[in-house]
Write a structure and sequence with these properties.
Elements lengths: L2 E5 L2 E3 L5 E8 L8 E6 L6 E6 L6 E3 L7 E6 L4 E6 L8 E7 L2 E2 L3 E5 L2
């Protein structure tokens, strides 16, 4: 069955960096667009970034442009989100998604 497993979250100080991973299985990863979403405390889930099948096209929410980079390695069936210059407002559970499938999420907390 389809599985999406996020990892890499944690506690980081403002201005710090984290790299999230999403390991995919159960489908042909290289043929699907992939998305990162996040849901902060008391907030609705929001789109963070997306990437095309071969990685040639990417999109970002305005709030993360210039700080986050989405990428993928189709040989490893894995998607990444490099997050730099983190801010307290980036605190959220981060989810990877494709079609109707969601991972369990990984918590990112930005705090001093």
């Amino acid at each position: 069955q389809v599985q999406l497993v996020e990892s890499g979250g944690g506690l980081v100080q403002p201005g710090g960096s984290l790299r999230l991973s999403c390991a995919a299985s159960g489908f042909t990863f290289s043929t699907y667009w992939m998305w990162w979403y996040r849901q902060g405390p008391g907030k609705e889930r929001e789109l963070v970034a997306s990437i095309s099948q071969a990685g040639g096209s990417t999109n970002y929410a305005d709030s993360v442009k210039g700080r986050f980079t989405i990428s993928r390695d189709n040989a490893k069936n894995t998607m990444y989100l490099q997050m730099n210059s983190l801010k307290p407002e980036d605190t959220a559970v981060y989810y990877c998604n494709t079609a109707q499938y969601w991972g369990q999420g990984t918590q990112v907390t930005v705090s001093s």
